[in-house]
Protein backbone atom coordinates (compact mmCIF):
# COMPACT_ATOMS: atom_id res chain seq x y z
CA UNK A 1 0.00 0.00 0.00
CA UNK A 2 1.27 3.47 -0.92
CA UNK A 3 1.04 5.33 2.41
CA UNK A 4 2.74 8.38 0.96
CA UNK A 5 -0.06 8.75 -1.61
CA UNK A 6 -2.70 8.54 1.11
CA UNK A 7 -0.82 11.11 3.15
CA UNK A 8 -0.56 13.43 0.18
CA UNK A 9 -4.30 13.17 -0.51
CA UNK A 10 -5.34 13.96 3.09
CA UNK A 11 -6.80 17.45 3.52
CA UNK A 12 -4.73 20.05 5.30
CA UNK A 13 -5.74 20.71 8.92
CA UNK A 14 -8.31 23.49 9.29
CA UNK A 15 -6.89 26.72 10.64
CA UNK A 16 -9.07 29.59 11.85
CA UNK A 17 -8.42 33.07 10.44
CA UNK A 18 -6.26 35.12 12.77
CA UNK A 19 -9.16 37.42 13.69
CA UNK A 20 -11.18 34.43 14.95
CA UNK A 21 -8.46 32.31 16.51
CA UNK A 22 -8.29 32.04 20.30
CA UNK A 23 -5.54 33.86 22.13
CA UNK A 24 -4.91 35.18 25.63
CA UNK A 25 -7.27 38.11 25.10
CA UNK A 26 -9.93 36.00 23.32
CA UNK A 27 -10.16 32.63 25.10
CA UNK A 28 -11.84 29.67 23.42
CA UNK A 29 -15.02 30.01 25.52
CA UNK A 30 -15.64 33.60 24.35
CA UNK A 31 -17.67 34.53 21.30
CA UNK A 32 -16.44 37.80 19.87
CA UNK A 33 -19.83 38.39 18.26
CA UNK A 34 -21.82 37.80 21.45
CA UNK A 35 -19.43 39.94 23.47
CA UNK A 36 -19.55 42.78 20.96
CA UNK A 37 -23.35 42.77 20.83
CA UNK A 38 -23.66 42.61 24.61
CA UNK A 39 -21.42 45.65 25.05
CA UNK A 40 -23.36 47.48 22.32
CA UNK A 41 -26.74 46.56 23.82
CA UNK A 42 -25.60 47.74 27.24
CA UNK A 43 -24.48 51.06 25.80
CA UNK A 44 -27.85 51.50 24.07
CA UNK A 45 -29.56 50.99 27.43
CA UNK A 46 -27.13 53.44 29.04
CA UNK A 47 -28.01 56.04 26.41
CA UNK A 48 -31.66 55.69 27.42
CA UNK A 49 -30.65 57.19 30.76
CA UNK A 50 -27.72 59.43 29.82
CA UNK A 51 -28.83 61.47 27.98
CA UNK A 52 -32.30 60.03 27.16
CA UNK A 53 -34.16 60.41 30.45
CA UNK A 54 -32.04 63.42 31.40
CA UNK A 55 -33.44 65.20 28.32
CA UNK A 56 -36.96 63.81 28.76
CA UNK A 57 -37.15 64.93 32.39
CA UNK A 58 -35.38 68.24 31.75
CA UNK A 59 -37.82 69.12 28.98
CA UNK A 60 -40.92 67.69 30.64
CA UNK A 61 -40.96 69.83 33.78
CA UNK A 62 -41.43 73.54 34.43
CA UNK A 63 -38.46 75.69 33.49
CA UNK A 64 -37.58 76.27 37.13
CA UNK A 65 -37.08 72.51 37.64
CA UNK A 66 -35.17 71.62 34.46
CA UNK A 67 -31.71 71.50 36.03
CA UNK A 68 -32.80 69.69 39.20
CA UNK A 69 -34.74 67.03 37.29
CA UNK A 70 -31.91 66.34 34.85
CA UNK A 71 -29.33 66.30 37.64
CA UNK A 72 -31.30 63.76 39.68
CA UNK A 73 -30.98 61.39 36.73
CA UNK A 74 -27.28 62.09 36.16
CA UNK A 75 -26.42 61.63 39.84
CA UNK A 76 -28.33 58.34 40.04
CA UNK A 77 -26.48 56.95 37.01
CA UNK A 78 -23.06 57.67 38.53
CA UNK A 79 -23.96 56.62 42.07
CA UNK A 80 -25.46 53.30 40.97
CA UNK A 81 -22.32 52.37 39.03
CA UNK A 82 -20.09 52.95 42.06
CA UNK A 83 -22.38 50.91 44.32
CA UNK A 84 -22.90 48.24 41.67
CA UNK A 85 -19.24 47.30 41.28
CA UNK A 86 -18.56 47.72 45.01
CA UNK A 87 -21.29 45.37 46.28
CA UNK A 88 -24.53 45.49 44.27
CA UNK A 89 -23.74 43.14 41.38
CA UNK A 90 -22.66 40.23 43.55
CA UNK A 91 -25.72 40.76 45.80
CA UNK A 92 -27.88 40.45 42.68
CA UNK A 93 -26.10 37.68 40.78
CA UNK A 94 -23.64 36.09 43.19
CA UNK A 95 -23.61 33.32 45.77
CA UNK A 96 -26.76 32.80 47.82
CA UNK A 97 -27.00 34.53 51.19
CA UNK A 98 -30.76 34.05 51.53
CA UNK A 99 -33.28 32.54 49.07
CA UNK A 100 -33.98 36.10 47.88
CA UNK A 101 -30.56 37.76 48.28
CA UNK A 102 -26.94 37.26 47.30
CA UNK A 103 -23.76 37.80 49.31
CA UNK A 104 -22.24 41.29 48.97
CA UNK A 105 -18.83 41.35 47.33
CA UNK A 106 -16.81 43.52 44.98
CA UNK A 107 -16.83 43.09 41.20
CA UNK A 108 -13.52 44.85 40.57
CA UNK A 109 -10.72 42.26 40.48
CA UNK A 110 -9.41 40.95 37.19
CA UNK A 111 -9.59 37.38 38.50
CA UNK A 112 -13.37 37.78 38.64
CA UNK A 113 -14.03 40.17 35.76
CA UNK A 114 -12.10 38.21 33.12
CA UNK A 115 -13.71 34.86 33.92
CA UNK A 116 -16.57 33.48 31.83
CA UNK A 117 -19.85 34.77 33.23
CA UNK A 118 -22.54 32.60 34.84
CA UNK A 119 -24.87 30.38 32.83
CA UNK A 120 -22.27 29.42 30.24
CA UNK A 121 -22.80 32.63 28.25
CA UNK A 122 -19.89 33.34 25.94
CA UNK A 123 -18.52 36.58 27.32
CA UNK A 124 -16.69 37.65 30.49
CA UNK A 125 -18.08 38.81 33.83
CA UNK A 126 -16.94 42.36 33.03
CA UNK A 127 -19.45 42.53 30.19
CA UNK A 128 -22.26 41.14 32.34
CA UNK A 129 -21.50 43.56 35.17
CA UNK A 130 -21.72 46.47 32.71
CA UNK A 131 -24.90 45.15 31.08
CA UNK A 132 -26.70 44.61 34.38
CA UNK A 133 -25.52 47.97 35.72
CA UNK A 134 -27.38 49.99 33.09
CA UNK A 135 -30.59 48.19 34.03
CA UNK A 136 -30.09 48.97 37.71
CA UNK A 137 -29.33 52.61 36.90
CA UNK A 138 -32.40 53.20 34.75
CA UNK A 139 -34.60 51.74 37.51
CA UNK A 140 -33.50 54.44 39.96
CA UNK A 141 -33.88 57.13 37.30
CA UNK A 142 -37.44 55.99 36.60
CA UNK A 143 -38.22 56.28 40.32
CA UNK A 144 -36.98 59.88 40.18
CA UNK A 145 -39.76 60.66 37.71
CA UNK A 146 -42.35 60.28 40.48
CA UNK A 147 -40.74 62.83 42.83
CA UNK A 148 -39.57 65.57 40.46
CA UNK A 149 -40.28 69.14 41.44
CA UNK A 150 -39.95 68.92 45.21
CA UNK A 151 -37.68 66.17 46.59
CA UNK A 152 -34.70 67.44 48.56
CA UNK A 153 -31.63 66.63 46.46
CA UNK A 154 -29.63 65.57 49.54
CA UNK A 155 -32.38 63.12 50.44
CA UNK A 156 -32.21 61.80 46.87
CA UNK A 157 -28.46 61.35 47.23
CA UNK A 158 -29.10 59.06 50.20
CA UNK A 159 -32.11 57.32 48.67
CA UNK A 160 -30.27 56.01 45.58
CA UNK A 161 -27.64 53.77 47.26
CA UNK A 162 -30.07 52.61 49.97
CA UNK A 163 -32.81 51.61 47.54
CA UNK A 164 -30.36 49.93 45.20
CA UNK A 165 -28.95 47.89 48.09
CA UNK A 166 -32.11 46.93 49.94
CA UNK A 167 -34.68 46.70 47.16
CA UNK A 168 -33.24 46.35 43.67
CA UNK A 169 -30.70 43.65 44.58
CA UNK A 170 -33.44 41.57 46.19
CA UNK A 171 -35.72 41.80 43.16
CA UNK A 172 -32.89 41.09 40.72
CA UNK A 173 -31.58 38.09 42.67
CA UNK A 174 -35.05 36.63 43.18
CA UNK A 175 -36.18 36.92 39.55
CA UNK A 176 -33.08 37.20 37.33
CA UNK A 177 -30.51 35.08 39.15
CA UNK A 178 -30.70 31.28 38.63
CA UNK A 179 -30.41 30.93 42.42
CA UNK A 180 -33.49 33.08 43.12
CA UNK A 181 -36.68 31.41 44.32
CA UNK A 182 -38.97 33.05 41.73
CA UNK A 183 -36.55 32.16 38.96
CA UNK A 184 -36.67 28.55 40.13
CA UNK A 185 -40.48 28.66 40.21
CA UNK A 186 -40.50 29.56 36.51
CA UNK A 187 -41.44 33.24 36.51
CA UNK A 188 -41.07 34.67 33.00
CA UNK A 189 -39.52 38.13 33.06
CA UNK A 190 -37.67 38.31 29.78
CA UNK A 191 -36.02 41.70 30.28
CA UNK A 192 -37.18 43.34 33.49
CA UNK A 193 -40.91 44.01 33.38
CA UNK A 194 -40.96 43.02 37.05
CA UNK A 195 -37.45 43.81 38.26
CA UNK A 196 -37.23 47.22 36.61
CA UNK A 197 -40.62 48.60 35.61
CA UNK A 198 -43.05 47.22 38.18
CA UNK A 199 -40.43 47.89 40.87
CA UNK A 200 -39.80 51.48 39.78
CA UNK A 201 -43.52 52.21 39.40
CA UNK A 202 -44.41 50.95 42.87
CA UNK A 203 -41.30 52.41 44.53
CA UNK A 204 -41.80 55.75 42.80
CA UNK A 205 -45.43 55.95 43.90
CA UNK A 206 -44.49 54.98 47.46
CA UNK A 207 -41.66 57.52 47.60
CA UNK A 208 -43.99 60.21 46.24
CA UNK A 209 -46.40 59.46 49.08
CA UNK A 210 -43.71 59.96 51.72
CA UNK A 211 -42.06 62.96 50.07
CA UNK A 212 -45.34 64.80 49.72
CA UNK A 213 -46.78 66.85 46.86
CA UNK A 214 -45.47 69.76 44.84
CA UNK A 215 -46.76 73.25 45.45
CA UNK A 216 -50.49 73.46 44.81
CA UNK A 217 -50.01 75.77 41.84
CA UNK A 218 -47.43 73.40 40.36
CA UNK A 219 -49.80 70.45 40.65
CA UNK A 220 -52.56 72.43 38.99
CA UNK A 221 -50.38 73.68 36.15
CA UNK A 222 -47.06 72.06 35.29
CA UNK A 223 -46.42 72.67 31.58
CA UNK A 224 -43.30 71.18 29.94
CA UNK A 225 -40.66 73.81 29.29
CA UNK A 226 -39.59 72.18 26.00
CA UNK A 227 -41.74 69.57 24.25
CA UNK A 228 -39.24 69.17 21.40
CA UNK A 229 -36.58 68.14 23.92
CA UNK A 230 -39.12 65.72 25.41
CA UNK A 231 -39.56 64.15 21.99
CA UNK A 232 -35.81 63.85 21.56
CA UNK A 233 -35.47 62.13 24.93
CA UNK A 234 -38.45 59.89 24.17
CA UNK A 235 -36.91 58.91 20.84
CA UNK A 236 -33.68 57.90 22.56
CA UNK A 237 -35.72 55.89 25.04
CA UNK A 238 -37.56 54.07 22.24
CA UNK A 239 -34.52 53.30 20.09
CA UNK A 240 -32.45 52.39 23.14
CA UNK A 241 -34.97 49.67 23.92
CA UNK A 242 -33.39 47.74 21.05
CA UNK A 243 -30.57 47.00 23.48
CA UNK A 244 -32.92 46.73 26.46
CA UNK A 245 -34.79 43.72 25.07
CA UNK A 246 -32.43 42.66 22.28
CA UNK A 247 -29.58 42.08 24.71
CA UNK A 248 -31.33 39.69 27.06
CA UNK A 249 -30.79 36.41 25.23
CA UNK A 250 -27.10 37.15 25.98
CA UNK A 251 -26.26 35.98 22.47
CA UNK A 252 -26.49 37.08 18.84
CA UNK A 253 -29.32 34.71 17.92
CA UNK A 254 -32.79 34.58 16.39
CA UNK A 255 -34.45 35.20 19.75
CA UNK A 256 -32.68 38.56 20.00
CA UNK A 257 -34.00 39.49 16.56
CA UNK A 258 -37.53 38.49 17.49
CA UNK A 259 -37.34 40.44 20.76
CA UNK A 260 -36.26 43.61 18.96
CA UNK A 261 -39.03 43.40 16.36
CA UNK A 262 -41.71 42.58 18.95
CA UNK A 263 -40.56 45.53 21.04
CA UNK A 264 -41.04 48.04 18.25
CA UNK A 265 -44.30 46.50 16.98
CA UNK A 266 -45.88 46.61 20.44
CA UNK A 267 -44.64 50.15 21.08
CA UNK A 268 -45.96 51.54 17.79
CA UNK A 269 -49.33 49.85 18.37
CA UNK A 270 -49.53 51.22 21.91
CA UNK A 271 -48.70 54.77 20.83
CA UNK A 272 -51.33 54.70 18.09
CA UNK A 273 -53.93 53.26 20.47
CA UNK A 274 -53.28 55.96 23.10
CA UNK A 275 -53.36 58.68 20.43
CA UNK A 276 -56.66 57.37 19.06
CA UNK A 277 -58.26 57.40 22.50
CA UNK A 278 -57.04 60.97 23.12
CA UNK A 279 -58.58 62.11 19.84
CA UNK A 280 -61.88 60.30 20.46
CA UNK A 281 -62.40 61.52 24.03
CA UNK A 282 -60.51 64.84 24.18
CA UNK A 283 -60.56 65.95 20.53
CA UNK A 284 -56.82 66.63 20.77
CA UNK A 285 -53.84 64.72 19.39
CA UNK A 286 -51.59 65.18 22.41
CA UNK A 287 -47.83 64.81 21.96
CA UNK A 288 -47.40 64.16 25.67
CA UNK A 289 -50.11 61.50 25.45
CA UNK A 290 -48.33 59.86 22.52
CA UNK A 291 -45.12 59.72 24.57
CA UNK A 292 -47.04 58.10 27.44
CA UNK A 293 -48.45 55.53 25.04
CA UNK A 294 -44.98 54.85 23.68
CA UNK A 295 -43.63 54.25 27.19
CA UNK A 296 -46.46 51.93 28.22
CA UNK A 297 -45.89 49.87 25.07
CA UNK A 298 -42.18 49.55 25.78
CA UNK A 299 -42.86 48.55 29.37
CA UNK A 300 -45.63 46.07 28.59
CA UNK A 301 -43.64 44.08 26.01
CA UNK A 302 -40.50 43.92 28.18
CA UNK A 303 -41.34 40.77 30.20
CA UNK A 304 -42.47 39.00 27.02
CA UNK A 305 -40.34 40.36 24.17
CA UNK A 306 -38.58 37.18 23.06
CA UNK A 307 -41.13 34.60 24.17
CA UNK A 308 -44.28 35.71 22.31
CA UNK A 309 -45.22 35.77 18.64
CA UNK A 310 -45.72 38.96 16.62
CA UNK A 311 -49.51 38.82 16.72
CA UNK A 312 -49.32 38.68 20.53
CA UNK A 313 -47.09 41.78 20.49
CA UNK A 314 -49.84 43.66 18.65
CA UNK A 315 -52.48 42.54 21.16
CA UNK A 316 -50.19 43.59 24.00
CA UNK A 317 -49.77 46.99 22.31
CA UNK A 318 -53.53 47.42 22.11
CA UNK A 319 -53.82 46.61 25.80
CA UNK A 320 -50.89 48.80 26.88
CA UNK A 321 -52.25 51.74 24.92
CA UNK A 322 -55.74 51.46 26.42
CA UNK A 323 -55.64 50.03 29.96
CA UNK A 324 -53.01 52.43 31.38
CA UNK A 325 -54.82 55.22 29.49
CA UNK A 326 -58.00 54.25 31.33
CA UNK A 327 -56.29 54.09 34.73
CA UNK A 328 -54.64 57.47 34.15
CA UNK A 329 -57.57 59.34 32.62
CA UNK A 330 -60.52 57.75 34.44
CA UNK A 331 -59.53 55.72 37.51
CA UNK A 332 -56.98 58.29 38.71
CA UNK A 333 -59.61 61.03 38.81
CA UNK A 334 -61.99 58.93 40.88
CA UNK A 335 -59.65 57.18 43.33
CA UNK A 336 -58.78 59.21 46.41
CA UNK A 337 -55.40 57.53 47.02
CA UNK A 338 -54.23 58.24 43.47
CA UNK A 339 -55.41 61.82 43.83
CA UNK A 340 -53.58 62.24 47.10
CA UNK A 341 -50.18 61.01 45.88
CA UNK A 342 -48.38 63.46 43.59
CA UNK A 343 -46.69 61.27 40.94
CA UNK A 344 -45.06 63.91 38.74
CA UNK A 345 -44.41 61.86 35.58
CA UNK A 346 -47.25 59.33 36.15
CA UNK A 347 -44.75 56.55 36.83
CA UNK A 348 -47.43 54.48 38.56
CA UNK A 349 -49.52 54.24 35.39
CA UNK A 350 -46.72 53.98 32.83
CA UNK A 351 -44.58 51.48 34.76
CA UNK A 352 -46.49 49.81 37.61
CA UNK A 353 -49.74 49.32 35.68
CA UNK A 354 -48.07 48.62 32.34
CA UNK A 355 -45.48 46.33 33.95
CA UNK A 356 -48.14 44.30 35.76
CA UNK A 357 -50.17 44.12 32.55
CA UNK A 358 -47.15 42.85 30.64
CA UNK A 359 -46.43 40.20 33.25
CA UNK A 360 -50.00 38.87 33.16
CA UNK A 361 -50.18 38.89 29.35
CA UNK A 362 -46.87 37.05 29.25
CA UNK A 363 -48.56 34.32 31.29
CA UNK A 364 -51.22 34.12 28.59
CA UNK A 365 -49.16 34.38 25.40
CA UNK A 366 -45.76 32.78 26.23
CA UNK A 367 -45.04 30.31 23.40
CA UNK A 368 -43.34 27.03 24.43
CA UNK A 369 -40.85 26.84 21.56
CA UNK A 370 -39.75 30.44 22.06
CA UNK A 371 -39.36 29.83 25.77
CA UNK A 372 -37.17 26.87 24.90
CA UNK A 373 -34.93 29.21 22.89
CA UNK A 374 -34.59 31.52 25.88
CA UNK A 375 -34.59 29.13 28.84
CA UNK A 376 -33.39 25.94 27.07
CA UNK A 377 -36.19 24.03 28.85
CA UNK A 378 -38.99 22.88 26.55
CA UNK A 379 -42.47 22.44 28.00
CA UNK A 380 -41.75 23.97 31.41
CA UNK A 381 -42.77 27.53 30.47
CA UNK A 382 -46.15 27.75 28.76
CA UNK A 383 -48.73 30.50 28.39
CA UNK A 384 -52.32 29.71 29.31
CA UNK A 385 -53.59 29.93 25.72
CA UNK A 386 -51.02 27.37 24.59
CA UNK A 387 -51.94 25.22 27.57
CA UNK A 388 -55.52 25.12 26.25
CA UNK A 389 -54.34 24.36 22.73
CA UNK A 390 -51.87 21.64 23.72
CA UNK A 391 -53.94 19.97 26.41
CA UNK A 392 -51.62 21.24 29.16
CA UNK A 393 -54.06 23.30 31.20
CA UNK A 394 -52.21 22.66 34.45
CA UNK A 395 -49.00 24.18 33.07
CA UNK A 396 -50.87 27.13 31.58
CA UNK A 397 -52.70 27.97 34.81
CA UNK A 398 -49.51 27.43 36.79
CA UNK A 399 -47.70 29.98 34.61
CA UNK A 400 -50.39 32.60 35.18
CA UNK A 401 -50.25 31.86 38.90
CA UNK A 402 -46.48 32.30 39.02
CA UNK A 403 -46.76 35.58 37.10
CA UNK A 404 -49.33 36.86 39.63
CA UNK A 405 -47.17 35.69 42.52
CA UNK A 406 -44.29 37.72 41.08
CA UNK A 407 -46.46 40.84 40.98
CA UNK A 408 -47.50 40.40 44.62
CA UNK A 409 -43.90 39.85 45.70
CA UNK A 410 -42.52 42.89 43.86
CA UNK A 411 -45.33 45.17 45.07
CA UNK A 412 -44.94 44.12 48.71
CA UNK A 413 -41.14 44.30 48.57
CA UNK A 414 -41.12 47.83 47.20
CA UNK A 415 -43.88 49.26 49.37
CA UNK A 416 -42.13 48.01 52.51
CA UNK A 417 -38.49 48.73 51.64
CA UNK A 418 -39.18 52.11 50.05
CA UNK A 419 -41.24 53.21 53.04
CA UNK A 420 -38.55 52.17 55.52
CA UNK A 421 -35.84 53.91 53.49
CA UNK A 422 -37.82 57.15 53.27
CA UNK A 423 -38.60 57.13 56.98
CA UNK A 424 -34.94 56.56 57.84
CA UNK A 425 -33.75 59.33 55.55
CA UNK A 426 -36.29 61.67 57.10
CA UNK A 427 -34.45 61.27 60.41
CA UNK A 428 -31.35 62.80 58.81
CA UNK A 429 -32.58 65.35 56.24
CA UNK A 430 -36.03 66.51 55.10
CA UNK A 431 -37.43 64.50 52.19
CA UNK A 432 -39.15 67.55 50.74
CA UNK A 433 -37.69 70.93 49.93
CA UNK A 434 -39.00 73.95 51.83
CA UNK A 435 -41.94 75.90 50.41
CA UNK A 436 -39.65 78.87 49.79
CA UNK A 437 -37.13 76.80 47.84
CA UNK A 438 -39.88 75.16 45.81
CA UNK A 439 -41.10 78.60 44.76
CA UNK A 440 -37.64 79.30 43.31
CA UNK A 441 -36.65 75.87 42.00
CA UNK A 442 -33.26 75.21 40.39
CA UNK A 443 -31.47 78.29 41.65
CA UNK A 444 -32.41 77.45 45.25
CA UNK A 445 -31.41 73.80 44.87
CA UNK A 446 -28.22 74.16 42.80
CA UNK A 447 -27.52 77.86 42.28
CA UNK A 448 -27.99 77.34 38.53
CA UNK A 449 -30.73 77.79 35.96
CA UNK A 450 -31.40 75.97 32.70
CA UNK A 451 -31.91 79.03 30.52
CA UNK A 452 -30.73 82.64 30.82
CA UNK A 453 -33.78 84.45 29.45
CA UNK A 454 -34.52 88.20 29.38
CA UNK A 455 -31.14 89.01 30.88
CA UNK A 456 -31.76 86.92 34.00
CA UNK A 457 -28.34 85.28 33.72
CA UNK A 458 -26.59 88.66 33.83
CA UNK A 459 -28.79 89.75 36.74
CA UNK A 460 -27.87 86.70 38.82
CA UNK A 461 -24.19 87.11 37.97
CA UNK A 462 -24.19 90.73 39.11
CA UNK A 463 -25.95 89.79 42.32
CA UNK A 464 -23.38 87.07 43.03
CA UNK A 465 -20.50 89.50 42.46
CA UNK A 466 -22.01 92.02 44.84
CA UNK A 467 -22.27 89.51 47.70
UniProtKB/TrEMBL annotation:
<feature type="transmembrane region" description="Helical">
    <location>
        <begin position="404"/>
        <end position="429"/>
    </location>
</feature>
<dbReference type="InterPro" id="IPR024041">
    <property type="entry name" value="NH4_transpt_AmtB-like_dom"/>
</dbReference>
<protein>
    <recommendedName>
        <fullName>Ammonium transporter</fullName>
    </recommendedName>
</protein>
<feature type="transmembrane region" description="Helical">
    <location>
        <begin position="256"/>
        <end position="275"/>
    </location>
</feature>
<dbReference type="InterPro" id="IPR001905">
    <property type="entry name" value="Ammonium_transpt"/>
</dbReference>
<feature type="domain" description="Ammonium transporter AmtB-like">
    <location>
        <begin position="36"/>
        <end position="451"/>
    </location>
</feature>
<feature type="transmembrane region" description="Helical">
    <location>
        <begin position="344"/>
        <end position="366"/>
    </location>
</feature>
<keyword id="KW-0472">Membrane</keyword>
<keyword id="KW-0812">Transmembrane</keyword>
<feature type="transmembrane region" description="Helical">
    <location>
        <begin position="224"/>
        <end position="244"/>
    </location>
</feature>
<feature type="transmembrane region" description="Helical">
    <location>
        <begin position="194"/>
        <end position="212"/>
    </location>
</feature>
<keyword id="KW-0813">Transport</keyword>
<dbReference type="Pfam" id="PF00909">
    <property type="entry name" value="Ammonium_transp"/>
</dbReference>
<dbReference type="InterPro" id="IPR018047">
    <property type="entry name" value="Ammonium_transpt_CS"/>
</dbReference>
<keyword id="KW-1133">Transmembrane helix</keyword>
<feature type="transmembrane region" description="Helical">
    <location>
        <begin position="37"/>
        <end position="58"/>
    </location>
</feature>
<feature type="transmembrane region" description="Helical">
    <location>
        <begin position="311"/>
        <end position="332"/>
    </location>
</feature>
<keyword id="KW-0924">Ammonia transport</keyword>
<feature type="transmembrane region" description="Helical">
    <location>
        <begin position="70"/>
        <end position="89"/>
    </location>
</feature>
<dbReference type="GO" id="GO:0005886">
    <property type="term" value="C:plasma membrane"/>
</dbReference>
<feature type="transmembrane region" description="Helical">
    <location>
        <begin position="160"/>
        <end position="182"/>
    </location>
</feature>
<dbReference type="GO" id="GO:0008519">
    <property type="term" value="F:ammonium channel activity"/>
</dbReference>
<dbReference type="InterPro" id="IPR002229">
    <property type="entry name" value="RhesusRHD"/>
</dbReference>
<dbReference type="InterPro" id="IPR029020">
    <property type="entry name" value="Ammonium/urea_transptr"/>
</dbReference>
<feature type="transmembrane region" description="Helical">
    <location>
        <begin position="287"/>
        <end position="305"/>
    </location>
</feature>
<feature type="transmembrane region" description="Helical">
    <location>
        <begin position="129"/>
        <end position="148"/>
    </location>
</feature>
<comment type="similarity">
    <text>Belongs to the ammonia transporter channel (TC 1.A.11.2) family.</text>
</comment>
Amino acid sequence: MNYSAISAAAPAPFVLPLNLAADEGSPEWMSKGDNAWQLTAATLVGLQSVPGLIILYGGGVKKKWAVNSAFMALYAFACVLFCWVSWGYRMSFGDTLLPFWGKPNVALTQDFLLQQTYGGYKFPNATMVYFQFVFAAITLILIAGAVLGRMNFYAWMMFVPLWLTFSYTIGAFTIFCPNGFLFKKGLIDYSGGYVIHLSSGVAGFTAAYWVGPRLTKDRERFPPNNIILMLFGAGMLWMGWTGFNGGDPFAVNVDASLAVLNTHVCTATSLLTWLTLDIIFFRKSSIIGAIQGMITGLVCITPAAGVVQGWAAIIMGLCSGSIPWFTMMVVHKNWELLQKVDDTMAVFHTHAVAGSLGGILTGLFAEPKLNDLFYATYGEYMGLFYGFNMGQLRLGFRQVGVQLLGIVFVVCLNVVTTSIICLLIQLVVPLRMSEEDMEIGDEAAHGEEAYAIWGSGEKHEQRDLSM
